[in-house]
Design brief:
Layout: H1 2-47, H2 51-63, H3 71-78, E1 81-93, E2 105-117, E3 120-129, E4 140-145, H4 147-225, H5 231-243, H6 245-307, H7 313-319, E5 332-340, E6 354-363, E7 366-376, E8 390-402, E9 407-417, H8 420-425, E10 431-442, E11 449-461, H9 479-485, E12 487-498, E13 501-510, E14 526-537, E15 542-553, E16 563-574, E17 583-595, E18 605-619, E19 623-637, E20 643-657, E21 661-673, E22 681-692, E23 696-707, E24 712-724, E25 728-742, E26 745-760
Antiparallel strand pairs: 1-2, 1-26, 2-3, 3-4, 4-5, 5-6, 6-7, 7-8, 8-9, 9-10, 10-11, 11-12, 12-13, 13-14, 14-15, 15-16, 16-17, 17-18, 18-19, 19-20, 20-21, 21-22, 22-23, 23-24, 24-25, 25-26
Helix pairs in contact: 1-4, 1-6, 2-6, 4-6
């Protein structure tokens, strides 16, 4: 019995000692694990990287590329946003200057508005006047699709989204690196706990075996030495030990074993927690990789879209969640209606004002421009102040094809016709005109730039036999002359030889029977050659050019008389970046003109030259001074003894004192030789402008025009411009003029007033 009890005591002691060691090592591992989690948490807090942020970032990145608006956002998207101005102007004078085109009294209503609906900007302009005797009937309303603003807005939005995708991709990449470090640290912690557990289990097993062996030896020795002397004592207390000590020993033994078991489980639990944390980190790492790849794809997508925004506008419409039927709007490069001024080509419609519609549609590398409307008949016979009727119908087409980055082709043409029955009733000639042509442009850094244009015209009168009779031939046209007489061409070549030095040459011919109602003042029946060189010095701050030009009519040699003019030109301009230096400009262009008329009485050989020079100068910061001097001389020599000279000198200067006061004056002097009193004049002007507050200003202007024949014009004006509230602006101008023996006016005084009201919204 004694041996059994002793063994139990030694075993309990060994278990207790071993459990203390296990608990100490377990506590160390737990502290290490807690330290790891605290460090990783602090690391996330310092970098502001928590799981919620990661989830929100991932969610945002998934929703960026596909926006499906609800009814409220769609309503906001399609609600028009309007900005602009409306102005009302009134004018009255007691005497009207005969050189003025406006009427003595008028009211004009005008407006300029920018309307944006669904991200599509429109420009709406209108103008209405009470005047009737004007060169053009100016009343109009114009609606134009602002294509450039539209493309600029789309480009800006894509740039912001590309920047956002780049930022998100960089953030995801950074978070991935952080998670890589945490995964490595967690793996190390996991390996450390495994090593600790393995070491603890090995040590526990070794210690248990050692304690059991030691206890067995000690128990045997003690039991032999005390066997005889303690037999009686042990026997007497055996019952009490079994009743009292044995249950206590068993309870302590059980508790120690349970503690050892709990500590062992705690280590295993820590390993499972680390395994779970490691799995979560790896899952988040994969999510970050997916987010990084998605954001990188978005970045590359917007980068491709920005390479050619005009061709990729349909993608913007899809991003806004707009119906696919609106995809056609992305193809409209230009749209305007009302008063339009289409520019098809110099050989076609150019500079003719119409009431109609103009639009351009982009189809990939192709652009189709259409213009349709009615124009004023503005030729030499009917161009007058009273004619303001839009009667001539025009249809114009321009087709552009960009073959590649170096070559583009343009096909153009128009058809114009007058109302035949109406003009017959009014005893007027009704005309019909058609033009077709092409323009090819080749650009390359290696080769010269080539620009080739060719057009052919057809023209006839609808109510008589007049047909392309602009010029008559003394002899019948040959086949080639027939083709060339109604045609026009221009060839231009340009090449930058070295930096700052370029060469340019061109030749142009327009046949004698080329008629273009779309450009009624177009020059015909001539051939022209131009050679030009351009120079740039001192970091492009000094520019110069030299050209030679020769022009002659009768290009097909169908008439016996040919007029020839030739000459050269020199020009120099400066654009100094140093604001303290003045800038200069000068040009000289002498020409000679003659013909080969068989009759010496009609044979001429004249010379003409024009010389211009000017200078501008600015100085000061708070007190600013500006000076401009400009002079010119035109010389025309018809014979060795007869010539005419016109000289003009203009001087203008302004002095700004602070931000409120500006004082200016100017003078112009004109002299002619031979002297003509009515054309020689001294003109002087003085002006003062003063700002009251931020927006209110008053201005005083005075002038005097004195001619050498005693005629003069003198007067002045007073202007007040002030805002009324946040949106309203009022401007009032009153003036006085005195005319004396000028423009057929003997002696007249004129009092006039002009009022303007503008409302901004």
């Amino acid at each position: 019995m004694f041996t059994t009890i002793t063994r139990r005591i030694l075993i309990l002691f060994a278990v207790y000692t071993n459990s203390i060691m296990v608990y100490a090592q377990t506590t160390d591992s737990t502290k290490t694990r807690k330290s790891f989690y605290l460090d990783s948490t602090n690391y996330f807090k310092q970098k502001k990287l928590d799981s919620g942020f990661l989830k929100s970032t991932t969610g945002l990145s998934k929703l960026k590329n596909r926006i499906i608006p609800d009814s409220a956002s769609l309503y906001e998207l399609l609600t028009p946003k309007i900005k602009g101005r409306i102005g009302l102007e009134g004018y009255h004078t007691s005497f009207q200057n005969p050189r003025m085109l406006n009427e003595p009294q008028y009211l004009r209503l005008s407006g300029n508005t920018a309307i944006s609906m669904g991200g599509l900007p429109l420009l709406v302009d209108f103008y209405r006047t009470s005047e009737t005797q004007t060169f053009y009937n100016s009343n109009y309303i114009k609606v134009k699709f602002d294509y450039q603003t539209f493309i600029s807005n789309v480009t800006k939005q894509w740039e912001q989204q590309m920047q956002r995708a780049s930022t998100d991709a960089n953030l995801s990449k950074y978070q991935s690196r952080v998670h890589d470090k945490l995964i490595i640290e967690t793996e190390k912690q996991k390996d450390a706990l495994k090593n600790q557990q393995l070491s603890l289990e090995t040590k526990l097993k070794e210690q248990q075996e050692a304690f059991l062996l030691q206890y067995q030896n000690q128990a045997d020795s003690v039991s032999l030495s005390l066997k005889d002397s303690l037999t009686t004592r042990i026997g007497s207390k055996r019952d009490s030990m079994e009743k009292n000590e044995h249950p206590k020993m068993l309870s302590a033994d059980s508790m120690k074993l349970e503690q050892l078991k709990n500590d062992t489980q705690r280590i295993a639990e820590s390993l499972r927690e680390i395994e779970t944390q490691l799995q979560n980190l790896q899952n988040k790492r994969r999510q970050l990789d997916s987010t990084f790849n998605a954001d990188t794809a978005k970045f590359n997508q917007y980068k491709r879209l920005l390479e050619d925004p005009e061709a990729n506008v349909t993608s913007w419409l899809k991003e806004q969640g707009l119906p696919p039927q609106l995809g056609l709007l992305s193809r409209i490069k230009d749209f305007q209606t009302g008063i339009i001024n289409p520019l098809i080509h110099t050989y076609s419609i150019s500079g003719v004002s119409m009431k109609g519609l103009e639009s351009s549609i982009v189809l990939g590398k192709q652009t189709l421009n259409l213009a349709f409307g009615k124009a004023i008949i503005s030729d030499f016979n009917s161009y007058n102040r009273a004619n303001n009727r839009y009667e001539r119908t025009f249809i114009g087409v321009n087709y552009d094809l960009r073959v590649n980055n170096h070559f583009s082709l343009h096909l153009f043409g128009h058809y114009a016709t007058d109302p035949k029955s109406k003009f017959i009733n009014q005893n007027r000639i009704a005309l019909q005109n058609g033009v077709v042509g092409f323009n090819a442009i080749y650009r390359s850094n290696k080769w010269p730039k080539f620009d080739l244009s060719y057009a052919k015209s057809s023209f006839k009168a609808l109510n008589n036999f007049e047909s392309n009779t602009h010029y008559f031939s003394a002899s019948p046209y040959s086949i080639s002359q027939q083709a060339m007489s109604t045609g026009a061409y221009k060839i231009l070549a340009e090449k930058t030889v070295v930096k700052g030095f370029a060469l340019e040459g061109s030749t142009q011919m327009v046949g004698p029977r080329y008629k273009n109602l779309g450009n009624p003042f177009m020059r015909v029946n001539f051939i022209e050659h131009i050679a030009k060189t351009k120079f740039a010095f001192y970091k492009n701050q000094i520019n110069a050019s030299v050209f030679y030009k020769t022009t002659r009519d009768n290009p097909l040699r169908i008439s016996e008389v040919t007029n020839i003019s030739s000459g050269y030109g020199l020009s120099l301009n400066t654009h100094f970046k140093n604001k303290r230096l003045p800038n200069f400009m000068a040009s000289l262009s002498p020409y000679e003109q003659g013909n080969n008329h068989p009759d010496s009485l009609f044979r001429i050989n004249s010379k003409f030259s024009i010389l211009t020079a000017g200078m501008t100068y600015r100085k000061g910061k708070r007190t600013k001074y500006f000076l401009m001097v400009y002079g010119s001389q035109s010389r025309m020599q018809f014979t060795d003894t007869f010539f005419a000279i016109v000289r003009t000198l203009s001087v203008s200067q302004d002095l700004s004192i602070g931000k409120k006061l500006t004082v200016g004056m100017g003078s112009t002097f004109t002299r002619t030789l031979p002297s003509v009193d009515s054309t020689q004049a001294n003109i002087h002007q003085a002006r003062i402008n003063y700002k009251i507050g931020k927006s209110t200003s008053i201005s005083l202007n005075g002038f005097s025009s004195q001619f050498l024949n005693g005629a003069y014009r003198r007067g002045g004006s007073f202007t007040v411009s002030a805002p009324t509230g946040k949106h309203l602006k009022i401007s009032i101008k009153a003036g006085y003029d005195n005319y004396y023996k000028l423009w057929g006016v003997d002696n007249k005084e004129a009092f006039w007033g002009l009022g303007k009201i503008e409302y901004l919204f």
